[in-house]
Amino acid sequence: MFEKIVKMKKLIILFSFLSILMACGSDNDPEVSRDNFNRKVMLENWADNIIIPAYENMNTHVETMKVASNTFIETPNEGNLSSLRQAWLDSYMAWQSVDMFEIGRAEQITLRNFINVYPLDLEGMQQSLLAGNYDLSLINRQDEQGFSALDFLLYGLATSDAEIVAFYTDTVNGAKYKTYMSDVIDRMQILTGDVLSDWKSGYRETFISRDGSSGTESVNSLINDYVFYYEKYLRAGKIGIPAGVFSGGTLNDRVEARFRGDVSKVLFLNALDATQDFFNGIYFNGEGEGVSLNDYLNDLNSIKETEDLSTLINSQFDVIRNMAGNLSDNLGEQVGTNNMLMLETYDELQKSVVLMKVDMLQALNVKVDYVDADGD
Amino acid sequence: MYFSITFVSLFEISLNKDTNLRRMKNTLSILAVFLILTTLSSCGDDDTVTPPIAIDEPTSYAFARESSSTVSFSGQSTRIAMAEEMISALKNSTLTAAPLAAMFDHQEGESNFSTSDLNASSKNVKSKVAASTDFFASNTAGASAVKADFDKWIAAQANDVFPKWDADASKGVSGAIQEAGGGSTRYVNANGLEYDQAVAKSLIGGLMTDQILNNYLGTAVLDAGSNRSDQEAGTLVDGKSYAAMEHKWDEAYGYVYGASQDVANPNATIGADDSFLNKYIGRVEGDTDFAGIADDIFNAFKLGRAALVAGDYTIRDAQAAIIRQKISEVIAIRAVYYLQQGKLALEASTPDMAAAFHDLSEGFGFVYSLQFTRDPLTNEPFFSRSEVEGFLDTIYSTASGANGFWDVTSENLQSVSETIAADFGFTVDQAGS
Predict the structure, then answer these.
(1) CB distance A117–B182 less than 8 Å?
(2) Which residue from A41, A174, B308, B312 has the highest number of Cβ atoms inside 10 Å of its Cβ?
(3) Is B235 at the interface with chain A, CB within 8 A?
(4) B341 part of contact set with chain A, CB < 8 Å
(5) Best mutation target, B18, B197, B280, to test chain A (most A CBs within 10 A)
């Protein structure tokens, strides 16, 4: 028996040693660079040819929207409403090309949460608008501003354009609608300008200089932001949630631009294109192609079941685009008429989550830095 | 024969704490004493060979006597259902304090709930909060203090928060506060605490954990009166299909699995069956650092029940020790998890205060629940009520004008997280993600 105790003690001591050794091993684990891929060149391409031009484009369109809103506010009529609507749609399309880059200043100020939360809290916004005592910088007010607030102000107030204009010419409340519209657009302009100027006044250099392979450096951070965006905002937000994938039934009021109606598909497709272009390093202006994730995967010779992973990912983007071709321009309508098409599109989107979040991140040795929220 | 099985069980407990040398030493010395004792007893018995007791362990939690099931825990399922309705009602701002208090302290026949079964029941939640034999039978003052906490939170929800349901919360002011990105709206008191979360998560300790670990799995309850001889003789409780001891064990089981879709094989849906202990065993199981814990708990319930039927009380009690350790760990892991999630939210450049308050309110309840845990090596809670109060004063201080979660610092949250994790022998990182 005594022998047994000694053995036990030895065993426990052995285990302790092993665990100490193991702990030491992982603590001191150096950042092993498994590849010689030139991340800096990729980061330069991302910053100079894709991200900054995309923000410049967004910023230009928001400025145009501001000018159009000034004109409309000064002279509310159907012609000026129409111009403002076009500027809104142009800006909304431009947003789809920057939404995935929530890094740096955009991450600090949580740009996405102030620019494009939908569904709109219609009741809350109407209360704020009429009471006039709102503070749009509060997190409480994130679902009362941005593109979806303008969607309502430009399309949702009434069924005819004349009736909508009448809200702004109303002698009692017209000024309140004008002020709210102006405040919402001002805020979008300030925040977008803030992010763009941060990129151009130092963050670009910081971003590019952080070209290591650890979790906190630029490549890993942006890839995480990209995959997170794809999973949560492109796949779930634009298609999955309205199609009822995460709820008991379909939710036709959860689509983007629900009051305008017929642009939700084009906004989705624009986002899909931007997402694929980023993967392939295509310049924002479309006039060139630089180093990006496809090259990184090819450089590592990443193969899944005898196929190049980069080819598989690109093919899947094409499959999604084809599948979405069957959808109505108005996704809110689509979930009511034939939701099966939405679900089929979602299923194809989901296949890319596996290709990117699992296969690509493994190939690139990038650890997922976000967890699905606890949900309660 | 059975010594070795017991020994392995204890050893397993110690292995899970391999980073905690202090506990390792405790385990070691207990093992040593245990082995010496068994050595002594086996020396005496050298001449007579004790036949090993055969334990007939089923594959699922199904036990029968002459083909009639002996498993019953309807009272536990009832209390879980009552608690579910109560925590829902805590978010119904049209109610006043009186109906909420009546749900907590339901009286037979009163229409406090949505179903006639619950209304007709003689059971209620409050009478079983801080009501275990081992911890509270001779500590009625302590029990009364715990019940008073629940009464206070429930009343304050109706009196302080419901009237402010549509007003914005701010530091020192109760009301509504919304999570970022158009997220959920949380309803908090003046110090950022959601009372409904405090109640729900504290019930996991005060009702479920206390009843399981400190009441039904204790020898004071299992072996009360003639339970052992009745169990061995197959003497049933009057009018029932079970003997008293096996029923007590099942009642412990019912507080974990009483709302399960398949009560005999509950782990198929673990985490999805209630809002209390079952749910959070599922959550901890989902953390790869602790995967396997759901099976550990279920298997211990099953083997312990089979051992009890076979009359092997040593193995029965060894399984009770495993359950005490593992369920205590679930509480501690979730306490640290929520404090860390809250810390993360508060440290963001644009802090999502509503999300932080929600996490911290859940953390508040899990920390509160620690006083009902049970260390199988000492038979004491891992943290006493006064230690728990110290933690709560650190993370939710209302002393000298402080406003609870509005004023909590990262350092406060980290220090409490580390103290809890260290005592259990897991790391803050393991629990926090």
Answers:
(1) yes
(2) B308
(3) no
(4) yes
(5) B18
In chain B, residues with a C-beta closer than 8 Å to the C-beta of A8 are 28, 31, 35
Handedness of CA A335, A339, A345, A349 (dihedral sign): positive
Give the amino acid at A66: K
Distance CA A243, CA A334 (A): 9
Query: Residue A4: closest CA among chain B residues belongs to which residue?
Result: B35
- Contact criterion met (CB < 8 Å) for A15 and B15: yes
Largest CA distance in chain B: 80
| Number of alpha carbons in the 13 Å side-chain half-sphere of residue B113 | 28
Residue with tokens 């899947």: A316
Nearest chain A residue to B176 by CA distance is A140
B94 secondary structure, DSSP code: T
Give ipTM to 2 decimals: 0.78
Give the separation between CA B90 and CA B5, rounded to whole angstroms. 46
Contact predicate B293/B326, CB 8 Å: yes
Distance from CA of B177 to the nearest CA of A (A): 6
Of A5, A107, A140, the CB nearest to B178: A140
Contacts of B36 in chain A (CB under 8 A): 1
Q: Do A213 and A219 touch, CB atoms closer than 8 A?
A: yes
Residue pair B184/B347 in contact by the 8 Å Cβ criterion: no
**CA pair distance A46, A53, nearest whole angstrom:** 10
| DSSP summary character for residue B170 | B
Which chain A residues touch B24 with a CB distance below 8 Å?
12, 16
CA angle centred on B431, ends B428 and B433, rounded to 5°:
105
Report which secondary-structure segment, H or E, holds B69.
Answer: strand B68-69
CA angle A280, A282, A288 (to 5 degrees): 135
Contact: B178, A143; criterion CB under 8 Å: yes
Question: Taking the C-alpha atoms of A81, A83, A87 and A90 in order, what is their torsion angle to the nearest 10 degrees?
Answer: 120
Interface of B with A in 275-294 (CB under 8 A): 283
Phi first, then psi, for residue A243 (nearest 5°) are -75, -5
Residues of chain B found within 8 Å of residue A108, distances taken between Cβ atoms: 349-350
What's the pLDDT tens digit per position in B314-371?
999 999 999 999 999 999 999 999 999 999 999 999 999 999 999 999 999 999 999 9
The per-residue b/e assignment along A245-284, b for 16 or more CB within 10 angstroms, e otherwise, is beeeebbbebbbbbbbbebbbbbbbbbbebbbbbbbbbbb
> Is B178 close to A142, i.e. CB distance below 8 A?
yes
- Angle formed at CA B376 by CA B373 and CA B380, multiple of 5 degrees: 55
> What averages of pLDDT result for each successive group of 10 residues across chain A (376 residues)?
44 44 40 73 98 98 98 98 98 98 97 97 96 94 97 98 98 98 98 98 97 92 97 96 92 97 98 98 97 95 88 97 96 96 96 95 91 56
Query: Considering the entire predicted model, what is its pTM?
Result: 0.82
CA B65 to chain A, closest CA, distance in angstroms equals 40
- Interface size, chain A vs chain B, as Cβ–Cβ contacts under 8 Å: 66
